[in-house]
Design goal:
Blueprint lengths: L2 H26 L2 H23 L7 H27 L5 H5 L2 H4 L1
Helix pairs in contact: 1-2, 1-3, 2-3
Length: 104
Amino acid sequence: MELGVIFAILAMLAWGTSDFFIGYSAKKVSSTTVLLYGKGIGVLILGVLVSINGLVLPNSLEGWETIILASLLTTIAWFMFSHSLKEGLLSILSPIGNSWSIVT
């Protein structure tokens, strides 16, 4: 089996598992709490990776506007996603949507 196919299957399983735990956690606590903890951990990991690799953040206003807009839209999308997992509306479509990695 090719390495790309193996990684695609692993990515699909990881996304499916994370969706399961997001839905499970959102049923125990609010979707907002799940979102804040998930994004907070992601920001910490990203901050460490940026500082280790010495990446430079944009110093132009347009660059920061793009980052802020993308962050806001992504946060809204993740909130709606975790809320739909909590309500059970997305439990069937989520595995199908996460199988895109095997096709591409």
